[in-house]
Amino acid sequence: MLHESSLSDAADRLWEELPGHRVEILNGSIVVTPPPDGPHQESCYEVSYLFKEAGAREAGLRAIPGIGLWLPTGPDDYAVPDVSVVDRDYKDALVEKNCYAPHVFRLVLEVTSTNWSNDTIIKLGVYAKAGIPVYVVADRAHDEVLLYQDPVDGKYPDPTHYKRGQTVPVPESVGVTLDLSVDTLLDGDD
Q1: What contacts 133, CB < 8 A, 6 or more positions away?
Q2: Which of 24, 27, 175, 188 is most buried, by the most CB atoms less than 10 A from its CB?
Q3: How far apart are CA 113 and CA 88, in angstroms?
Q4: Local confidence pLDDT in tens for the 190 residues of the chain
């Protein structure tokens, strides 16, 4: 790895050598996440489905798991959110390496795994600096969902916390009316 020509090349090589792992560059550092567990993936599937059922397509949106988000925090920085709600024409915003410009992202959802601090600390900062208007964290380590909105000067205001039995209202700015069950976000099923 020390002989790679760039951080980006090193990340590409890791991606090839570790099938199923998520490789990202956050704040100039390579972050490798092991494959997610079943409930994690169920949550992502359910959220994508619920957005479709709520009329995302008709509203000019797509809910897509695992697409790249180009970040302004470093020359090679990118993230791969668990689920992203993007404008229908997001393909026109391709930057490079299958990553898209932040301006087409309306909402990003992360479901925590063993790397929960990446989602609750590192990604919180990079998504705010990228200007992602809505960031939802299904924090399975703390059994709650956090809703961050409207970053100011590269930082999100304090989040709204949601506990089991509650629903998370998707902010109107996203473009669809939808309440997401905290239990579904945390467990993948009701």
Answers
A1: 105, 106, 107, 149, 150, 151, 171, 173, 174
A2: 24
A3: 29
A4: 444 468 889 999 998 999 889 999 999 999 998 899 999 999 999 999 999 999 999 999 999 999 999 999 999 999 999 999 999 999 999 999 899 999 999 999 999 988 788 899 999 999 999 999 999 999 999 999 999 999 999 999 999 999 999 999 999 999 999 999 999 999 987 6
Provide the whole-model pTM. Answer: 0.93
d(Cα 94, Cα 148) in Å, to the nearest integer?
25
Other beta carbons within 10 angstroms of residue 70's beta carbon come to 19
Question: 189 to each of 46, 82, 90, 142, 156, how far by Cα in Å?
Answer: 8, 16, 29, 18, 29
Backbone angles phi, psi at 63, to 5 degrees: -105, 115
Distance (Å, rounded) from C-alpha 13 to C-alpha 89? Answer: 30
Conformation bin of residue 150: beta by default, left when phi > 0, alpha when psi is -120 to 50: left
Contact present, 59 and 176 (Cβ < 8 Å): yes
Look at the block and give the residue holding tokens 């100011």: 152
